[in-house]
Amino acid sequence: MKLSPAARSFFRYQGFLRLPIVLEADVVTRLRETIQRHIREEIEPYRRDGHGRIVRISNVWDRDPIFQETFTRPDLLDCLADLLGPNIEFMKNRHNHATLRLRGETGDNDRPLLHRDALQWSRTIVSVVFYLEETTLENGCTHVVPGTHLLPITTSTSMDVEAGEYDAQLLEQLAPLPMPRGGIAVIDGMLIHGVGVNRTESSRMSMTAGYHSVDEMVNEAPGHREVVRGSRFYLGNA
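^ that's the sequence the OP posted. Answer follows.
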């Protein structure tokens, strides 16, 4: 699976893209059942919300083979190679989790909690979101502010509206990104984005993974990264 030149250009300038890939129904079922089992059995590490409900399980890469199979599927890596080049690493210390968006999890907030996944452009990542349930405005789909990955470097990934870190005119550009069950979206780590509010009685389940080009200036292999396409190499001065 290759991305068209127009799709690659769209990602570069807008900072996000719906991939032309949909996870097979049986793969989605296996992922959902595995995530739900790990939540029921309270297999650490996990995070609870303010109501005591487990809403995230972390380090999914090492939990079950189905996760690595999904994160390294060839059609996905083909698309990522068009964005990151031929040598790609999976980041075990960024994202690498499955989440549930439940009603009431965000308290009284009526807007997405906006953030960036990276601080500055020279070390940005490609965040990949796998939607294991259909996401809509009602159950809290992802929202993006197109083009904001091109804005200046920040000192925090949290985009605090009340603190005036960006203005109302920018917020007016916030756009929903509804996705089908099994759909996959890629987001530049510098893009301002957030998960919407779930106003339904059902969950909104997804997984998020981070990918990075192999850093040719790092001489030692980082323990928290796995090469999933190509190879690791070093081009720094001796």
